[in-house]
Write a structure and sequence with these properties.
Elements (H helix, E strand, L loop, with lengths): L1 H37 L23
Length: 61
């Protein structure tokens, strides 16, 4: 009886790990697709390291 319970537990654990990794990969792919579509926006500043936008910079002279 204990070996059967171990096998059932191992199967459930393996399924849990499989679906966890599958979910991470699927959401990562979806997020990368969303980021690619946002990357085409010319307003996005790639050098905005402080996250404050352009108002925190000194004006160009």
């Amino acid at each position: 009886m204990s070996i059967e319970m171990f096998l059932v537990g191992a199967l459930l654990f393996a399924l849990y790990i499989y679906f966890t990794i599958w979910n991470i990969m699927r959401n990562n792919k979806k997020q990368n697709e969303e980021n690619k579509s946002k990357g085409d926006d010319p307003i996005v500043d790639e050098f905005d390291s402080d996250g404050m936008g352009n108002f925190s910079r000194f004006p160009e002279e």
